[in-house]
């Protein structure tokens, strides 16, 4: 019988990953910084559970599902039954090929009585896959015509044979024993070179095998059991056997490794992988009856920590496997399916850049951004933001500021974080609050606020930085906010260079203040003045821009905040209140804006809490919509959109 083949064209990219389970003996040159988890889902729509999914982590403990936890590949396109279980993922020994094997089984539709075989998949980039369905009963009827189960296939590279060995659990219809069989894959990983043979027979049977090589020894982890003299099972859990060769003989150890075997809490689907840049190995397993996934640690694959640890995750995985990935590979996964944690996307070094496309609003979806400021330089818009440290925060935790650029508002580049609050040694608050960058005399000046520690200024030779503290002390403190009494009055600086070349700084919470800047841009010249706006409910976040000779002072008003504005014929006013530009975002108590003209169009840049599931008042995201003027120069209300400006 010919093997069924389908080519799945899912996207682009070159993707590599590594697992110590591969037993590849070469020295890999990859710089692994994250992890990829292949699994099938144990909750939600039962019609979608037995399908391949991916998740990614930067630390192998906190996981995020890709593709919103939707299937990466529909099972109906790759399996004979319409379902897949127990996916195992492996990087090839040549660093150029990738392999997945899975159980061909759709229990929701067909039950547990039997399944025909396994699925073998291979790829040159992890995105575009070829697959074959291996029906053992049809391919090898003499030996496997009476097969009942073919479960949990996995692959390991045999360095001596220079072939990939596929191994799996077999049960025949007339025999309750569960044994491991194996066969070498052919060159294109579409089938076997020979009929599978018995590989390892545990004393009382076993399922869910996982082999890893360490220091000349193969460790074969599996779910085993013990029975009494009558044949009744009295205990089960994760055990291991060892051998110096994949061909055996295997020495079975009677010790249970998981923390639950004595508690009679069932586990299965064990998988072992090595942590990046560490001597630690992780033994993870599926507590399938309790809908949990936990793990224990080891340095020698013999002695494991006794207290199990829990994963943090936004999905409910069933029997899967984990391998290591590079930052580049994580970004490719992000471009295809989204969901990769920001730690694996953000530039990590001076020469590292992250390129991404904006898909509507929010513009940036891989990290939480707030308090936007913008600078237009030639044909490039530079976006500078605050950085809410995580999703679902219950307070403001902001440690650094971020920088991005675009020439078309669609294609964006993120740069290494150019400035951190720790760069200001005097900023004891540790709060990286709102700021703005402006250019003068070939230098870029970033005015930032640090909550109660004051306003500082940093300088750089390029808009993307890096920036350094230009003063070594605050430029402004609460003492300069003479009409205020609360500790966070000295925040939210905005700067503008007037038509005569004079630079002005505006800032303040509760009251709006302004002052001239000296030509060196790092000192105040003259007295601080208070800006009074008749009829305005000024809260914070001032922004100054000029259009057709008019000065527009926009700001957050009320609380929860909307964006209002006032107009004047002069930089220092008087300012006349004109109304609301942007209504309350609804899911963010704060509002903060930048208004710029870019390539002949005006844009309103703001934040909200729209990035779900964990967006909110303390985990915000930057959005961009068009800003339009009325004939008399007043501003039309912004229409906040999900589509954005694209």
Automatic annotation (TrEMBL):
Active site positions, chain numbering: 371 (proton acceptor), 540 (proton donor)
Domain of life: Bacteria
Pfam families documented for this protein: Glyco_hydro_43
Alphabetical UniProt keywords: Carbohydrate metabolism, Glycosidase, Hydrolase, Polysaccharide degradation, Signal, Xylan degradation
Site-annotated residues for Important for catalytic activity, responsible for pKa modulation of the active site Glu and correct orientation of both the proton donor and substrate: 492
GO biological process: xylan catabolic process
GO molecular function: hydrolase activity, hydrolyzing O-glycosyl compounds
Cleavable signal peptide: 1-25
InterPro entries reported in the protein's UniProt record: Glyco_hydro_43 (IPR006710), Glyco_hydro_beta-prop_sf (IPR023296), Glycosyl_Hydrlase_43_Enz (IPR052176)
Transmembrane parts of this sequence: none
Annotated PANTHER family: ENDO-1,4-BETA-XYLANASE, PUTATIVE (AFU_ORTHOLOGUE AFUA_2G04480)-RELATED
Family statement: Belongs to the glycosyl hydrolase 43 family.
Protein name as it appears in the record: Glycosyl hydrolase family 43
């Amino acid at each position: 019988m010919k093997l069924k083949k389908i080519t799945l064209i899912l996207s682009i990219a070159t993707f590599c990953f590594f697992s110590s389970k591969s037993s590849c003996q070469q020295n890999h040159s990859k710089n692994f910084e994250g992890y990829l988890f292949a699994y099938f889902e144990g909750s939600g729509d039962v019609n979608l559970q037995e399908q391949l999914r991916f998740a990614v982590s930067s630390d192998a403990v906190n996981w995020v599902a890709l593709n919103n936890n939707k299937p990466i590949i529909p099972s109906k396109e790759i399996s004979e039954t319409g379902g897949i279980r127990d996916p195992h993922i492996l990087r090839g020994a040549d660093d150029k090929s990738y392999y997945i094997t899975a159980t061909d089984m759709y229990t929701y539709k067909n039950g547990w009585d039997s399944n025909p075989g396994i699925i073998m998949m291979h790829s040159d980039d992890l995105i575009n896959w070829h697959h074959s369905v291996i029906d053992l009963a049809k391919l090898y009827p003499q030996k496997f015509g009476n097969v009942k189960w073919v479960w949990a296939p996995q692959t390991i590279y045999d360095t001596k044979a220079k072939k990939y060995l596929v191994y799996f659990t077999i049960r025949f219809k007339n025999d309750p024993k569960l044994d491991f069989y194996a066969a070498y894959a052919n060159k294109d990983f579409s089938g076997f070179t020979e009929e599978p043979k018995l590989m390892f027979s545990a004393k009382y049977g076993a399922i869910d095998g996982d082999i890893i090589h360490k220091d000349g020894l193969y460790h074969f982890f599996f779910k085993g059991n013990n029975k009494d003299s009558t044949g009744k099972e009295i205990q089960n859990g994760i055990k291991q056997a060892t051998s110096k060769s994949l061909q055996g003989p295997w020495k079975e150890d009677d010790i249970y490794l998981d923390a639950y075997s004595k508690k009679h809490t069932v586990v299965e689907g064990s998988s072992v992988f090595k942590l990046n840049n560490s001597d630690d190995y992780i033994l993870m397993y599926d507590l399938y009856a309790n809908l949990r996934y936990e793990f224990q640690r080891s340095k020698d694959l013999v002695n494991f920590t006794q207290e199990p640890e829990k994963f943090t995750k936004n999905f409910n995985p069933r029997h899967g496997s984990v391998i290591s990935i590079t930052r580049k590979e994580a970004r490719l996964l992000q471009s295809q399916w989204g969901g990769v944690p920001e730690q694996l996307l953000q530039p990590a070094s001076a020469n590292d850049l992250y390129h991404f496309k904006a898909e509507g609003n929010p513009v940036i979806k891989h990290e939480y951004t707030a308090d936007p400021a913008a600078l237009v330089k030639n044909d490039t818009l530079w976006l500078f933001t605050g950085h809410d440290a995580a999703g679902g925060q219950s307070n403001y935790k902001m440690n650094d500021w971020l920088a991005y650029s675009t020439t078309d508002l669609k294609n964006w580049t993120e740069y290494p974080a150019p400035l951190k609050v720790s760069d200001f040694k005097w900023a004891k608050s540790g709060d990286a609050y709102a700021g703005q960058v402006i250019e003068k005399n070939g230098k870029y000046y970033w005015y930032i606020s640090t909550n109660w520690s004051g306003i500082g200024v940093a300088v750089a030779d390029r808009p993307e930085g890096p920036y350094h503290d230009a003063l070594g002390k605050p430029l402004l403190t609460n003492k300069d906010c003479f009409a205020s009494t609360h500790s966070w009055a000295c925040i939210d600086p905005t700067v503008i260079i007037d038509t005569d070349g004079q630079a002005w700084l505006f800032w303040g919470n509760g009251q709006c203040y302004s002052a001239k800047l000296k030509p060196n841009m790092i000192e105040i010249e003259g007295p601080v003045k208070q800006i009074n706006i008749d009829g305005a409910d000024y809260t914070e976040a001032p922004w100054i821009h000029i259009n057709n000779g008019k000065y527009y002072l926009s700001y957050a008003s009320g609380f929860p905040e909307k964006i209002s504005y006032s107009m004047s014929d002069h930089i220092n006013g008087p300012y006349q209140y004109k109304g609301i530009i942007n209504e309350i975002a609804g899911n963010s108590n704060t509002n903060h804006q930048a208004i710029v003209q870019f390539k002949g169009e005006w844009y309103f840049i703001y934040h909200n809490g729209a990035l779900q599931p964990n967006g909110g008042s303390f985990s915000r995201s930057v959005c961009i919509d068009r800003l339009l003027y009325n004939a008399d120069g007043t501003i039309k209300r912004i229409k906040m959109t999900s589509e954005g400006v694209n």
